[in-house]
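Hey all, quick one. A colleague (J.T.) asked me to put the zinc ion job into the tracker so the inputs and the structure tokens live in one place instead of scattered across chat threads. No bug as far as I know, just bookkeeping. Sequence used:
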Amino acid sequence: MSKKHLILPWTLVVLLSFGIAALLFLYQDQKNNVQQTSSSSSVSSTNTQSSVSSDVSSIAPSSSSSEDQTPEQALQSDIELAAAQTQLMTSISIKSSRLENETSYVVPSTGKYVYLTFDDGPSENTPGVLEILKKNKIKATFFVVYNKNKEYYRQIVEDGQTLALHTYTHDYKKVYSSVNDYFSDLDKISDYVKEAAGIDSRIVRLPGGSSNTISRHYCKGVMTSVTEELQKRGYSYYDWNAQCLDATTENITASQILKNVKSFTEINGVQKPYIMLLLHNASTETATKDALQSIIDYYRSLGYQFEAITPDTPAVHMTLQN
Ligand SMILES: [Zn+2]
């Protein structure tokens, strides 16, 4: 065949190939567009759902499920709620100092402060904790319950530590059945502390914190009424903005406690300038005593100043949920 004869079929082949390629390209492009649209809409809907549900869980958790829970389950979700709220407050404190004042605590204009607070003691762990505090020349706060050994209370006061009130029984059912039940329990521990150590304390921490929801099982609105009444009667109550999870983690070790303390103190490398740290001092909380020196060393290395709560200490309040 001559060259002239070859040009026409080859041109047809080339044109046909381009045509097929162009059609294939258009088809593929359209298919991709459809896929992208559907996948992006599914991503955004997932995002919306997860952010809404996490907001709901941090702001109004266990509100729908709490009715079906046993008190033990409710206590667990209560503890989780407290942890979630502490985190929530943490993120607020980093975002805006104005919000902090409104919702939780006052940030000092200069310096960094840590308040070590021990709940649920005194116990056989108290002398060891007092020893470490004395050795380090540090003041802390003990929110106490009933213990038959009055010597522990005396020793806390003699060492110049703050002796404050937690509850007599620490029995949620008794304490949160009504406002009267709460105050009869508070009066009992208050009288006992007076008798044991000669102190008339007006500094209080509520079992489960003021934001606890387990109290709903016993009396709706009791936390709101109790906190109002506390202030009317001249008491100041204190929650916390950091914790070590010693009372809520089974068989926790001293190193885990320190790790938890760090995670509540430094968020994305930013240190909170004001730490109200929840620790426990019941007879079971030996790991907390074992971790104490490392906790002190940690805060010292970051330049924190140690403080005990006094009647002048500004409030640290969580948002009431009941
Ligand atoms: Zn407690």
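Adding what we noticed when we looked at it: The two ends are 96 Å apart (CA to CA). The chain has a mean pLDDT of 79.
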